[in-house]
What we know:
The protein is mainly alpha-helical. The chain has 4 helices and no strands. Helix 1 runs parallel beside helix 3 (44-64).
Amino acid sequence: MAGTRLASYFDAMGDRERAERARTLALQAEAFSEWAASGHEAPVDVEFRLMEVETALEALHCEAGTAEQRDYQTCFTPEGGWENYFRAHGL
């Protein structure tokens, strides 16, 4: 899971705050994904929250500077805003 890998990366870098954030987001993403996969109709707020968690993980990838996320067009950044996020994901 991306959040777990990010947590390990930030732990190795000595950034405990971001590592804990990545772990928390990973747990949230897993819980929301399990709900969605259960076949039960998820309330709109759960689906929206999953999208928020995925966006936050994307932002952490950008902060980590991982190779796949270094391109400005694929990163959600405060400077780039939602426009770049949506463009990068074909939305």
